[in-house]
Amino acid sequence: xxxxxxxxxxxxxxxxxxxxxxxxxxxxxxxxxxxxxxxxxxxxxxxxxxxxxxxxxxxxxxxxxxxxxxxxxxxxxxxxxxxxxxxxxxxxxxxxxxxxxxxxxxxxxxxxxxxxxxxxxxxxxxxxxxxxxxxxxxxxxxxxxxxxxxxxxxxxxxxxxxxxxxxxxxxxxxxxxxxxxxxxxxxxxxxxxxxxxxxxxxxxxxxxxxxxxxxxxxxxxxxxxxxxxxxxxxxxxxxxxxxxxxxxxxxxxxxxxxxxxxxxxxxxxxxxxxxxxxx
Length: 279
Fold this sequence. Notes:
Strand content: 25-35%
Strand order of the largest sheet: 4-1-6-7-9
Structural class: alpha+beta
Radius of gyration: 23 Å
Helix content: 25-40%
Number of domains: 2
């Protein structure tokens, strides 16, 4: 009985390893130069690879994003601990692929034309993806009247100093503009250098009555990169005969996991405008 049990455990282990080796990863985007030694060609979006593939990275900055129908989303990047004498970074996929954790933050199902009554409900308290360099948010006039005396402040710390920026608005609509909010003096800094942002609502001109509206982490998404990623996702899932509604859900989950919560009304308009894709 003891030997029989060991035999079945052995068979199960072989089956698991075989399944892992057969798993196929679909390449969504490649950054930098990665050469697939096994297939003898440069790694490119749309490629399919397995754990048996050997990859050669041009440098430590080269990486790729991949999706497996079995296990989710992955980042492929070279090992950071390499010998200075190594001129090439070569490794099998199984040694350089890491899963991307799922983002627990849910998307904001915000309908275009509605006004925001609570910024914490809109942005959430984790990462929030802003497509491009600008975001317009229509606020509730009743909850947040805006004028010369009442307005919002965008606050963060940079090099251990507090930076306060007044958020531009027109009537009841706030405008978050990257190049304005992240400009200090004549220099424009990267939002990646800021850990978190606090948004305060100033209730009077003397700034003595300030209310913390939300604390979150904005992520400004490069539109060219996002377009490339969405093109790959649409091609991948339409090839599996999924409906546009199903494909959209995959796109939404992908964005949530990589960038954070996103306004779906903005995303749908963007997909129609940039990729002629409709749900």
